[in-house]
Amino acid sequence: MSSWNARRRLITAALVAVVVLGAAAVGVWLAVRDDANPQALRIEGEGPEVGSVPDDGGAPPGAPGVGTAWTVSADGRSFQDESGRPVLVRGDSPWSLLTDLSSEEIRDYLAAREEQGFNALLVSLLGATGNGGPSDSGATVDDVSPFLDGDVTRLNPEYWDHVHAAVAAASEHGVTMFLYPVDGWTIGTSFVPRSIDECRTYGAEVGARLADLSNIVWVTGGDYFPVTNEPEDGSDVDRCFDAVREGLDTAVERPFSIQLGYDKSVSTDNPFWRPRVDWNFVYTYFPTYRAVLDAVEAAPSIPAVMGEGNYEGENNQPETPPTTDETIRRQVLWAMTSGACGAFFGTDDWEFLPGWETRLDSSGAHAAATALDVVEEFAWWRLWPDTDDPLVTSGRGTLLTDDAPTDVLDNDYVTAALTPDGSQALVYVPSTRTITVDRARLAPDLRARWIDPASGVEAPAGDGPTYTTPGPNSDGATDWLLAFDGAA
């Protein structure tokens, strides 16, 4: 979420943290943070059972959420809404929304993103300096703490009423919240459990407080690197995160996943998490098609979401080109022509830097939204990546086959996807060239057209089988989408 240099500074600062909690009246609980790695938390002892937390009133009264309730489709390819219609994830990443902004500011933010066509937000439920929050105590900007006396089993009603109101407001704006109940920055800082049972109890309490709201998808991890010699068994932190998941499910079961660490990761890469996730969070600073293709090949099939790439205003790989609107388009369109069911966009204002209000209408936000607008015109949930049976037979460029650091603008491989019946196809061509298409793999008499991904404006493409990009697009770059659909 932050630039590499900023991440390194945050990690260095976190390395000095050692958290030790001693004896309590009901037993000996211990949470030890390894000073060699802030995410190597050891959680020992026993804590209270789920349901043993004092009743502090529960969720505030109010009507159930009216936002989109997303579940995984029967074929495992996408999310769907209450009526079973596929939902294209059009995401934004305001990580510290709940701790940095007032309720009024949150509503303004939601209104702006709704107007721009975003329908999903990645947000941390707890704050820490590492995820953009005001402090490592987890308190909001007006000093409201999430827990009473730091006890993760005693939720502060004032804080969680604020959370509930924000999620309900998102529902009113048609936004689904991808919420992190705990992440790689808050474990051991604002969230210090004294046992695995406390992790489970926390999840159950949070789930109960938000049970009346339908517009929630769960995700955990963040910039998270499991520290264990037995990946299949998981670390103490893995088991805490999983206990939180189990607790959440005691209220309402919702889709769940984990975001592992950079520079490239897919949720199902990790053997502990592979059987536990309902969708794949794809995280990469490299050309996105490679990681998305890895995620799509996971068995059984689960939705692959391009969850995080390079953010507008940041450069996540030193000595490489800055993140531009073209970078953002490539990340989105490579993902969508490689089998993803949506993509998240992000800016340097994930931590709400001064003046963030003036930058909501950024060119990067428009670049991401316009690219997704173009894709949404097609049966994107039926498009399958063109790998084994090549639709594009020449001019594709160099396919990345390893995870060597590669900037998004330093590779221009052509990706393509088509429906099983050949009635639609999308080909993303990142730079000037001529490609050859095997039209025998498509339904007969389809029209071919070039679409400018920066504006959505179309240009005729001819009958093929060779197609040459039309020149600079409206952004001055040379990336284009070649689309096949409908009668010629």
Automatic annotation (TrEMBL):
<protein>
    <submittedName>
        <fullName>DUF4038 domain-containing protein</fullName>
    </submittedName>
</protein>
<dbReference type="Pfam" id="PF13204">
    <property type="entry name" value="Apiosidase"/>
</dbReference>
<feature type="domain" description="Apiosidase-like catalytic">
    <location>
        <begin position="74"/>
        <end position="381"/>
    </location>
</feature>
<feature type="compositionally biased region" description="Polar residues">
    <location>
        <begin position="466"/>
        <end position="476"/>
    </location>
</feature>
<feature type="region of interest" description="Disordered">
    <location>
        <begin position="454"/>
        <end position="476"/>
    </location>
</feature>
<dbReference type="InterPro" id="IPR025277">
    <property type="entry name" value="Apiosidase-like_cat_dom"/>
</dbReference>
<feature type="region of interest" description="Disordered">
    <location>
        <begin position="45"/>
        <end position="71"/>
    </location>
</feature>
<dbReference type="InterPro" id="IPR017853">
    <property type="entry name" value="GH"/>
</dbReference>
